[in-house]
UniProtKB/TrEMBL annotation:
This is Amylo-alpha-1,6-glucosidase. Coiled coil: none annotated. InterPro entries: 6-hairpin_glycosidase_sf (IPR008928), 6hp_glycosidase-like_sf (IPR012341), GDE_N_bis (IPR032856), MGH1-like_GH (IPR054491). One of its GO terms (biological process) is carbohydrate metabolic process. Residues 6-198 form the Putative glycogen debranching enzyme N-terminal domain. It comes from the Bacteria. Residues 280-588 form the Mannosylglycerate hydrolase MGH1-like glycoside hydrolase domain.
């Protein structure tokens, strides 16, 4: 399906490439907010016929421009409308909870022409889980349609007691209006232009966005994007492919920003995951730290507001646990699904603490840690008491909810944790990367506690971290493979399949130098590195499948977490190998955009192969090119100790790189790197941080 999607804050529109929402389509097209479809048919006709598509672009996320024309029309030998004589342009944008669409028509026929433009409409108020075919259940009913000369308002009363409505308005006199259609007559001279603008405003329990002139909405929207760019670090490079990837990533992340009252944070991806999403939002915010650290603050506050408070097996909730995903639709409101929120993730809680500690290293802002002090303590309690189910020192997961998720790490498909003989591991399962997250969280929080004067608590956390480090190597290391197991199963047996998961542990600082070196070497070996990136599972393993979701595919964000570790440990050569592979892959996808994932086939076999179903844009994929920049710079600040480590090495094909206005502490760092005779040289153009710069790690 070649779909088109635009989004702003909590409202998004998903249509076909003509801009239409045909009734009863198989792709879930519609206008959505709060996990409900507020427009299920939006079908443009000219003289009751489908226009012909000329061009349709999806490179902009906040607006769309679709160009069409008319088919040839005649009846009983009499000309009605000559083919391709009318240009039809659909311009749309979303602002403040309202969709604006202007249908502009222009005649290129040499004589006056007349025709009708109609829009076929319907609203089903269907819950997103039902639209996607994941769930059925008790729902409410439509309660009527209100008509005025220039609007139709559809009403619905949900089984959850929530009243929902959709108001469709227009600014031109209609010649015909019914419950399902509004039509307009146009008379045009040669090259004359006329238009009609629709406004579609969803309403939930009487609350809706403010409708304004579309020109004002566009001006406000552009201003918000200009403000985004102003507050985001800027990159300039002589590598056009790197430049395009970074520019696209920054724009994609902007459109994925949402604010539910605690500050901006990235939702997971479009079209189906435009909601607060534990690990996805946390990792995307982590990727953005060098570019806009304020996003981490909004992400942390948003997730803290939903921290678990009780033991609730239906939602896999426990006190102190950070949520996985929250939904706002009718099925959630009636508790027919557990996403209110749902807590079935093993990694969101340590990732929450990890993001907080990294945010503090970039900003020196201890006030956020003070604000979230109880959240921190509750999260640490969860790690030790509920996360470690059997007291063995490792955090493990086990599904409690009947409608929850079985595998609760980032590789959450049912076949993602598999032994080398092909048997699926049984829960409780302790994942390798999660132990790294816990180590990084505890050492990072200990550093914050030291600055807060909580020496005793800091010492305790550091002791726990060192114990975890020792146990991890003892129980996860596979000497015969010179690599770590993906997990321990319920019998505490190593799940020995070679996967990318242990690569995340590099970033934590938990590995000894020898094992870190061996881990890096394995990840860039031919079994893992396809030429386009590091596979989720090594080629040759029993579970390996390059077409799978998690067992041999390539996920850019997975690579980005590994890249951070490689760079932090000064494995720049290997990191640059991976970066070049991903940049090579990106050239085979639309709009200079790294996809959520792609197939793990080797580069020697031809172009990178698209995975059949993937979110686009997707937050942690969009954030991956930003990690390229941090990795290439070898940039790791420590605002708590007022030092900045920079160790740049430009990859092949990149000879110049300038990054301006990197916010660190209370100041800014701007640097340039140039390559001469294969060596990279750093120039500090600006340093108002007051911190000492170390160029050797």
């Amino acid at each position: 399906m070649d779909y088109r999607v635009i989004k702003e804050n909590d409202l998004f529109l998903l249509t076909d490439d003509k801009g239409n929402i045909p009734l009863n389509n198989d792709y879930g097209l519609g206008l959505y907010t709060k996990d409900t479809r507020f427009l299920s048919k939006f079908d443009l006709k000219i003289n009751n016929e489908d226009p012909i598509l000329l061009s349709s672009s999806a490179d902009e996320n906040y607006s769309a421009n679709i160009l069409m024309t008319n088919p040839h029309m005649e009846k009983d030998g009499e000309l009605i409308l000559w083919r391709e004589s009318v240009e039809i342009q659909r311009k749309r944008l979303i602002y403040d909870g309202v969709l604006y669409e202007t249908v502009q028509v222009k005649s290129f026929y040499p004589k006056p022409v007349e025709f009708d433009i109609s829009m076929q409409l319907d609203v089903d108020f269907t819950d997103m889980f039902i639209v996607r075919g994941f769930q059925s259940g008790e729902t409410g009913k439509r309660t009527g349609i209100d008509h005025t000369d220039k609007s139709l308002t559809y009403h619905y009363e949900g089984a959850d007691g929530v009243k929902r409505s959709t108001r469709v308005g227009w600014d031109r006199e209609a010649i015909n209006t019914s419950d399902a259609e509004v039509a307009f007559h146009f008379s045009l001279d040669h090259e004359e232009i006329q238009s009609v603008t629709f406004t579609i405003a969803p309403e939930v329990d009487g609350v809706s966005g403010e409708i304004m002139a579309p020109e004002q909405a566009l001006e406000n929207l552009k201003a918000s994007y200009e403000n985004w760019e102003k507050n985001t670090a800027r990159v300039q490079t002589d590598s056009s492919r790197l430049q395009r990837l970074v520019d696209r990533g920054i724009l994609d992340l902007r459109v994925l920003m949402t604010d539910i009252g605690y500050g901006q944070f990235p939702v997971a991806g479009l079209p189906w995951f435009g909601v607060p999403f534990g690990r996805d939002s946390l990792i995307a915010a982590l990727q953005m730290l060098p570019f806009n650290a304020e996003i981490a603050k909004g992400t942390l506050r948003t997730l803290a507001s939903q921290q678990g408070t009780k033991v609730d097996p239906w939602r896999d909730e426990q006190p102190g646990k950070i949520m996985h995903e929250i939904r706002y639709g009718e099925l959630a409101g009636t508790e027919q699904i557990p996403f209110t929120p749902y807590y079935g993730t093993i990694d969101a809680t340590p990732l929450f603490l990890m993001l907080l500690t990294e945010y503090t290293k970039w900003t020196g802002d201890l006030s956020l840690a003070e604000e979230l002090q109880q959240t921190i303590e509750n999260a640490l309690m969860w790690i030790d008491e509920y996360g470690d189910r059997d007291g063995d020192g490792f955090v493990e997961y086990h599904q409690e909810s009947s409608k929850g998720i079985a595998n609760q790490g980032w590789k959450d498909s049912a076949d993602s944790v598999v032994h080398r003989n092909g048997d699926h591991a049984e829960t409780p399962i302790a994942l390798s990367e999660v132990q790294g997250y816990v180590y990084q969280a505890k050492t990072g929080i200990a550093a914050i506690y030291e600055k807060q004067g909580k020496a005793e608590e800091a010492v305790r956390l550091l002791k726990e971290a060192e114990e975890l480090k020792s146990k991890f190597h003892e129980q996860f290391w596979m000497e015969d493979q010179s690599f770590y197991a993906i997990a321990l199963d319920k019998e505490k047996k190593k799940v020995g399949t070679l996967t990318s998961n242990p690569g995340h542990v590099l970033y934590s600082g938990m590995l000894e130098e020898e094992q870190a070196d061996q881990t890096v070497s394995k990840l860039v070996s031919p079994a893992f590195f396809s030429g386009y990136g590091i596979r989720t599972m090594a080629e040759g393993e029993a579970g390996y499948n390059p077409m799978s979701y998690h067992d041999g595919s390539i996920w850019p964000h997975d690579n980005s977490m590994i890249l951070l570790g490689m760079s932090k440990l000064n494995h720049q050569k290997q990191a640059n190998q991976v970066i070049n592979g991903l940049m090579d892959a990106a050239q085979h996808f639309e709009y200079d955009r790294l996809p959520e994932l792609f197939c793990g086939y080797g580069a020697s076999g031809g172009p990178a192969v698209k995975y059949p179903v993937a979110c686009s844009p997707q937050a942690w994929a969009a954030g991956t090119p930003l990690v390229f920049i941090q990795t290439v710079l070898g940039l790791f600040p420590d605002a708590l100790n007022e030092v900045i480590s920079v160790s740049p090495e430009l990859p092949e094909g990149v000879n110049e790189l300038t990054v301006q206005s990197i916010k660190i502490g209370n100041g800014y760092l701007s640097v340039s790197v140039r390559k001469e005779n294969g060596k990279s040289f750093l120039t500090v153009n600006e340093n108002t941080t007051g911190y000492t710069i170390h160029t050797d790690k």
